[in-house]
Amino acid sequence: MKIFLVICLVAASLAAEDVLRGILRSPKETLKLYGDFKSQEHLKFLASEDRMRFRLFRSNAQLVAQANEEGGSAVFGLNFFSALTEDEKQQYLGLNVTGHDENPMHVASSSFSAPEKKLWTNEGLVTAVKNQGSCGSCWTFGAVGGLETRYHGVSGKLRSFAEQEYLDCVYEGQRNGCNGGWPDNCYDYSKKNGGRLASTADYVYTQKDGSCKGSSKPDAMVAAKINGYTSVSPTEAANIQALASGSLSVAFEVTNYFQQYRNGIIKDTTCTGRPNHAVTAVGYTSKFVLVKNSWGGSWGDRGFVKFARGYPSNCGLFKYSSYPKLVTTGQSDNTPSDKATDYRPSEDDDVKPDPQPNPDCKDRASNCRSDWCKYANIAEDYCQKTCNKCDGGDDGECPSGTIRCSDGVCRHEHMC
Q1: C-beta separation of 281 from 238 below 8 A
Q2: How many angstroms separate the CA atoms of 391 and 394, rounded?
Q3: What integer pLDDT is reported at residue 385 of this predicted model?
Q4: Is 239 a catalytic residue?
Q5: Which residue in 138, 178, 212, 387 is the catalytic one?
Q6: Fewest CB within 10 angstroms: 29, 119, 352, 371, which?
């Protein structure tokens, strides 16, 4: 009986092994994957730097493999963070928490009952994911995101507002906005300047701090003006209550673990307790809070991430939330709405599995996913079924560089 249990435990352990684990055991296969990665990310390095980048890549690939083997709902993968130094990673953050404590507790004053689910993306009231680039301007994106749905509630128009105005103007004469900031300072700036904020179309984002041009750009706050901000009590319940009426500017701690997120519902246990990134909460279900990031659509779940509900930590996600106070002007915003994201997460809380085409063969590795298929050696050597690499076409030939092994599966010869 004991032998049977040991066999079962070993089998379960092997079944949970991530596809990367087997590759990382082989220096040759790891180098091959690194080459595929550089090709996908359009990276080229001199020889001395390439050795350093390879070590970073291998370390992050090991992190991804371990994270996927933990068996939670979240899925992790390689992305543009996988070959960056720690200093380079910091440039994609930008929340300056110095002098700011978590929000104070407030006595609930509203009798409004939040619905069980509210996904502003699915109502077409969230703009497309943007990319802050290597400028620590996340604080501007969090603030602008917290404004979008609330301005629509007053005007009936979805507007893409200008992060660049906040980046150029909020700390003008004090410091470079790419070195960090605080979202609520954006709302204070607007209040001091007549409640204004330009549109992205009129004040384009440049990924660098420039001179303030706010007074020379058209004011896109036509139907309402920003008159300060409201802080949300630092509890999940208070955040859900506020999120039911509109998007929120929120802040949390980004970890190396979080940076490699691909999709699913995340529970990060690696936080140390200091917030460093501002984003926008744009909805919730009974299982997750949906957050819009500012690292472009290739990161995460098309630029979005799902944080677990009922998880006390969440790296401080509920402790620093706010949203702008708006005062109506009585004027109509007659400019057509800006384009909304077409991202529509499932409202039934399910994380749908990747399709598994071609039932006539098997994946060599467990835990294959379609997003691994962009890496040639994973697709052809490890995830043939998932990546539809079992057959070479109607004539039955294997793909170039592979042969048909004794089990009928096309692989590189050394893998048979």
Answers
A1: no
A2: 8
A3: 87
A4: no
A5: 138
A6: 352
> Does pLDDT of 295 surpass 80?
yes
Beta bridge partners of 281: 248, 291
Instruction: Please name each of the domains of the chain with its CATH number.
Output: 18-71+353-415 (no CATH), 89-328 (3.90.70.10)
Q: How confident is the model at residue 402 (pLDDT cuts 50, 70, 90)?
A: low
What token pair was written down for 31? 């180098």
Q: How many residues does the chain have?
A: 416
As given in the structure block, the two tokens for residue 264 are 């699913």
For the segment 259-274, what is each residue's pLDDT rounded down to a tens digit? 999 999 999 999 998 9
Q: Is the pTM of this model over 0.90?
A: no
Q: CA-to-CA distance for 409 and 384, rounded, in angstroms?
A: 8
- Answer yes or no: is pLDDT of 157 > 60: yes
Classify the phi-psi angles of 70: left when phi > 0, otherwise alpha if psi is within -120 to 50, otherwise beta.
Answer: alpha
398 catalytically annotated: no
Q: What percent of the chain has pLDDT over 70?
A: 86
Catalytic residue among 60, 103, 131, 293: 293
CB 363 within 8 A of CB 381: no
- 148 in Cβ contact with 158 (< 8 Å): yes
The predicted pLDDT at position 5 comes to 39
User: How many angstroms separate the CA atoms of 31 and 81, rounded?
Assistant: 18
Token pair 């979240």 in the structure block, residue: 74
**What is the crossing angle of helices 183-192 and 138-155, to 10°?**
60
Active-site residue flag, 293: yes
Burial class from Cβ neighbours inside 10 Å (0-12, 13-18, 19+) for residue 352 reads exposed
Distance CA 205, CA 353 (A): 36
CB 232 within 8 A of CB 242: yes
Check 186, 239, 277, 368 and give the catalytic one. 277
